[in-house]
Amino acid sequence: GTKIYGNLGKRGIKVFPTMNDDFDEDAKVAVDIVADANGNVLEARINPKGTSATQPKTKQAALRKAREIKFNPGTETQTGTIILDMRVRG
């Protein structure tokens, strides 16, 4: 499942994207996220610590998905790290 660390963990996720995308390995990808008070993701960067993905396509797909996440509204811009469980469907 998806895990959230940092201040964003207290806010929770309002909208989570489907994980269908163009990648070809099962891996976990840690993404450092900055979300504004409305819950929109402003920045998403791969965090090598906690990332088992080796293929660039998997990391790029994780970044695309992270940017589609909508967090519950808060009172300020917050940061956190989310671990995406990328699984190839076959």
Description:
The chain has 90 residues and is α+β, with helices and mostly antiparallel strands. Helices cover 19% and strands 38% of the residues. The protein has two helices and six strands. It has helices at residues 8-11, 56-68; strands at residues 3-6, 13-15, 27-35, 41-47, 70-71, 78-86. The strands form two sheets. The chain has a four-stranded antiparallel sheet. It has a two-stranded antiparallel sheet with strand order 2-5. A hairpin with a 5-residue loop joins strand 3 (27-35) and strand 4. The mean pLDDT is 93.
- The helix-and-strand class reads alpha+beta
Unreliably modeled segments: none
**Adjacency order of strands in the biggest sheet:** 1-6-3-4
Gap from first CA to last CA: 19 Å
Number of helices: 2
Number of DSSP E strands: 6
Overall mean pLDDT: 93
From the spread of the alpha carbons, the general shape counts as elongated
Largest pleated sheet: 4 strands, antiparallel
* Helical residues, percent: 10-25%
Strand content: 35-45%
- The radius of gyration is 12 Å
Order of helices and strands: EHEEEHEE
Topology:
Blueprint: E1 3-6, H1 8-11, E2 13-15, E3 27-35, E4 41-47, H2 56-68, E5 70-71, E6 78-86
Antiparallel strand pairs: 1-6, 2-5, 3-4, 3-6
